[in-house]
Design a protein that fits this description.
single chain, alpha/beta, Trna Endonuclease, Chain: A, domain 1, five-stranded mixed β-sheet, 11 helices, nuclease
């Protein structure tokens, strides 16, 4: 990521606290700030804002997944800058600080905001995706564990169409896929073994096409389908249909083949099912098919901080009060 010098200077003044509504940081506190962001930088005593601007430029040059996802270190810097514990007099909710920071970020195509937990987040305006340090294997916070349990309950009761529309579509859009399209799942018209197809643009600007075959319940290798589960042989046939059938990309005005396929299960994909389908695939197709089960969906959905489906949210508590003066 390459920022304009003017914007780097203004962001550096904000980090140093030279701007109104932000905590003033002397040399030692600037070092402490970067250490809190897991960056091994020590201020050398030179002009504060110039030194910070150089460090910010280094951070923005770190490897990152795509233009819409900044380096993790930069996300940590934005969150630390918006820490509500550093609220200044006259700005207790940090709304003025947020506005001042956004005046800089918007010129580079970004916008900061506070989520429902009061944590600073960063949104890429062009793609409307939220920049997240999305490591699905990290320990979850208590608030995230609570949201995970609510989503688990939702997956137990939702239909296959709800799984696709309320969970998978928002998730893959947030992960950077675009042109996410549902292919006639409700009426099975022109589905050809896939429920969703989508595109992913590599940093080299090459485009890969993905298809999703989604099942609500468990995926196993039992000879007869059990209640709430699907047979892996059926999924294998549908995936082969997906990989062999062309899709029409209206942006390019031509037909293309699906490069990779996701098999997504709202329940567990058993070890036997994974082994069976792995043995059925030859070496050329083995890299084309990927698996996601319930745990993968839950962890990715939570760490990317996506809002839960409305029907997954708990009902608000209703308290009834009685006035002793009103006769019954």
């Amino acid at each position: 990521m390459k920022w304009k010098s003017r914007n780097l200077r203004e962001l550096a003044h904000i980090v140093c606290g030279d701007s109104e509504h932000f905590r003033y940081r002397s040399s030692s506190y600037i070092t402490e700030f970067f250490q809190d962001c897991d960056l091994d930088y020590t201020h050398d005593g030179s002009t504060r804002w110039a030194w910070v601007a150089s460090r910010l430029e280094e951070v923005l040059a770190l490897p990152h997944a795509s233009p819409s996802v900044p380096p993790d270190a930069f996300i940590r810097i934005i969150r630390a800058t918006l820490d509500k514990g550093d609220a200044q007099e006259g700005d207790p909710d940090r709304s003025s600080a947020l506005a001042a920071l956004n005046a800089v970020l918007v010129r580079e195509g970004w916008e900061a905001f506070f989520d429902e937990h009061g944590l600073g987040q960063l949104r890429h305006n062009a793609t409307n995706t939220i920049a997240q340090m999305a490591n699905p294997h990290r320990p979850l916070t208590p608030a995230e564990m609570e949201r995970r349990e609510l989503l688990t309950t939702y997956l137990d009761k939702c239909s296959e169409d709800e799984l696709i529309e309320e969970v998978l579509l928002p998730l893959f859009r947030q992960l950077g896929f675009h042109r996410v399209t549902v292919t006639g799942h409700k009426d099975k018209a022109l589905e050809y073994g896939k429920d969703v197809w989508m595109k992913y643009t590599l940093p080299t600007l090459h485009v890969l096409y993905f298809g999703i075959q989604a099942k609500k319940g468990k995926l196993d290798s039992a000879g007869v389908g059990r209640p709430g589960s699907s047979n892996v042989a059926e999924i294998h046939n549908q995936v082969n249909m997906m990989l062999g059938h062309e899709i029409f990309d209206s942006e390019l005005n031509r037909r293309v083949l699906v490069d990779h396929a996701f098999i997504v299960a709202g329940g567990e994909i058993t070890k036997q099912a994974r082994n069976w389908i792995g043995n059925k695939l030859d070496a050329t197709k083995r890299s084309q098919i990927m698996f996601m089960d319930r745990d993968d969906i839950l962890n990715l959905f939570i760490v990317t901080n996506l809002p839960l489906p409305k029907s997954a949210l708990p009902l608000p508590k209703v308290t009834t009060t009685f006035d002793d003066d009103i006769p019954f």
